[in-house]
Amino acid sequence: MSNAIGRPVAASGVPEASERGSVLLALEALGIIPDLEQAPGFIGAVYEPVPRIHLRYREAIARQKELYEKLVK
């Protein structure tokens, strides 16, 4: 994903990230934690894009747009 979008991507450090998010929202709604910003972050590995691979994705997107324009017109 990082190579495709050209930005760093952080993996979740917990196996059930959506469950964790639901629990944090519930805790905030109950007033147990005053603000989600105070919840500990559970960020796992951060993946950086590889410039040459990201360039391939950009070229592929350009080709796809060109082909799409040819089909639509």
Question: What is the structure about, briefly put?
Answer:
The protein is an alpha+beta fold and 73 residues long. Helix content is 53%, strand content 12%.
Outline the structure in words:
The protein is of the alpha+beta class and 73 residues long. Helix content is 53%, strand content 12%. It is built from three helices and two strands. The protein has helices spanning 2-5, 17-29, 51-72; strands at residues 9-12, 43-47. It starts with a helix and ends with a helix.
Structural class: alpha+beta
Q: Supply Rg.
A: 19 Å
Oligomeric grouping of the chains: single chain
Distinct helical segment count = 3
**Widest sheet: strand order?**
1-2
Tell how many strands the DSSP assignment holds.
Answer: 2
**Roughly what fraction of the amino acids lie in strands?**
5-15%
The topology string of helices and strands comes to: HEHEH
Whole-number mean pLDDT: 90
What share of residues is helical?
A: 40-55%
Note the main sheet. Answer: 2 strands, antiparallel
Global morphology: elongated
Point out poorly predicted stretches: none
What gap, in angstroms, lies between the N and C termini? Answer: 31 Å
Blueprint of the fold:
Elements: H1 2-5, E1 9-12, H2 17-29, E2 43-47, H3 51-72
Antiparallel strand pairs: 1-2
Features:
single chain, 73 residues, alpha+beta, two-stranded antiparallel ribbon, elongated
